[in-house]
Design goal:
Blueprint: E1 6-7, H1 9-12, H2 18-23, H3 26-42, H4 48-59, H5 79-85, H6 89-99, H7 105-123, E2 135-136
Antiparallel strand pairs: 1-2
Helix pairs in contact: 3-7, 4-7, 6-7
């Protein structure tokens, strides 16, 4: 079932030239990841914030384990948290608060890694989802 504003897996691959433009998201995504790594080194934070904030957004799909869904569709139960963890506003808010000195550098590094994760996901076609779990068109809802 395809919802208006969503793309089923067969419709995503049908657009010629779409893949190459989408892969351009790798450039800013990897730049954010490298900058997060440099900031972690500068503040002696190690790999913990990079790994935690870089991996945790994808753990949200575990909420859908055992739930019925089609190929390319995220189970409905996992969609709200998945979308919250893959929307750019939360990490941008953390970056702003950490840059203002309200939060520690740990949060800055974590938010940069999280935002890098979101942007790299865009390169691979893993953006926000519709309430039914299908991929949305465009970058954000």
């Amino acid at each position: 079932m395809t919802v208006e504003g969503a793309l089923a897996p067969d419709r995503i691959a049908a657009r010629p030239g779409r893949l190459s433009r989408r892969l351009l998201w790798l450039v800013p995504g990897l730049a954010l990841a490298f900058y997060a790594g440099a900031q972690a080194t500068a503040h002696d934070l190690g790999l913990v914030p990079l790994l935690v904030f870089g991996i945790v957004p994808h753990l949200t799909v575990l909420l859908g384990v055992g739930q019925p869904h089609a190929r390319g569709q995220l189970p409905r139960r996992a969609v709200p948290l998945y979308n919250a963890m893959h929307h750019p506003v939360p990490p941008l808010a953390l970056i702003g608060l950490a840059t203002a000195g309200i939060l520690s550098p740990f949060w800055l590094v974590g938010a940069l890694a999280w935002l890098g994760h979101i942007v790299v996901d865009l390169a691979f076609g893993h953006g926000l989802r519709t309430p039914d779990g299908w991929r949305r068109r465009g970058m954000v809802a």
